[in-house]
Automatic annotation (TrEMBL):
SUPFAM superfamilies: Rhodanese/Cell cycle control phosphatase. The lineage of its organism: Bacteria, Pseudomonadati, Bacteroidota, Bacteroidia, Marinilabiliales. Signal peptide: none annotated. This is Rhodanese-like domain-containing protein. InterPro entries: Rhodanese-like_dom (IPR001763), Rhodanese-like_dom_sf (IPR036873). PANTHER family: THIOSULFATE SULFURTRANSFERASE RDL2, MITOCHONDRIAL-RELATED (PTHR44086), THIOSULFATE SULFURTRANSFERASE_RHODANESE-LIKE DOMAIN-CONTAINING PROTEIN 3 (PTHR44086:SF10). GO terms for molecular function: thiosulfate-cyanide sulfurtransferase activity. It holds the Pfam family Rhodanese. It comes from Maribellus luteus.
Length: 203
């Protein structure tokens, strides 16, 4: 098993144990710690950077991006449509109002997985559903969406489809232009709400 995954799992177990001591007598939907521990070891809470990019491009109204980094980091760079709720600022009425909205998919974002995972554990313990973590965080976003690596010539069709999507997403988010074989630059339009069967991957 991947050493990073083992470390993260152990960290999540410690965090989950800590949430047991939260005072939530007025929270009837709080999750039992044992159930929470079972959910922690499942990878279903993760969504890929490709999935997040596609939802932003399509203008998916169900997407709620919550950046859990500090305000300074958020001001330095953030994803479109994201709101900044630092990890230590969640437990206020205003910030909690972003959670538990029917039909909304809340995706937590940080530089990597760690702080976003911590926020996920806390909100799950509080009983909120429909919460996820962007796998790899903004570090992975930079690698896959902002600066996607071109596959080798013998790459699979699925890998080429993923790269094609990422190049389009790169242009959408950065305003970059694509060079043709003769060196000329052309603008590439990324259609919103385009329904395709793009193979979505992650870090």
């Amino acid at each position: 098993m991947n050493r990073n995954y083992i470390f993260l799992t152990l960290l999540m177990l410690v965090l989950a144990a800590g949430t047991v001591f939260l005072t939530m007598d007025d929270e009837p939907n709080q999750v039992d710690p044992e159930i929470l521990l079972q959910e922690i070891i499942q990878p279903t809470r993760y969504v890929s950077t490709d999935q997040v990019a596609k939802m932003i491009i399509q203008g998916d109204p169900s997407l709620m991006l919550i950046d859990v980094r500090s305000e300074d980091d958020f001001q330095g760079y953030s994803l479109p449509r994201s709101v900044n709720i630092p990890l230590d600022s969640l437990l206020t009425a205003d910030n909690l109002s972003y959670l538990g909205i029917p039909g909304t998919k809340v995706v937590f974002v940080s530089d990597d997985d760690i702080r976003a995972d911590q926020m996920w554990v806390l909100t799950k313990r509080l009983g909120y559903k429909g919460t996820y973590v962007m796998r790899g965080g903004l570090n992975c976003w930079m690698q896959t969406i902002i600066e996607p690596e071109q596959p080798s010539d013998d790459a699979s069709y699925a890998d080429m489809e993923t790269y094609s999507f990422r190049k389009g997403a790169q242009i959408y988010f950065t305003g970059a232009e694509e060079e043709t074989s003769d060196g000329a630059k052309v603008e590439v339009q990324v259609q919103k709400r385009e329904k395709t069967n793009v193979a979505l991957g992650g870090c």
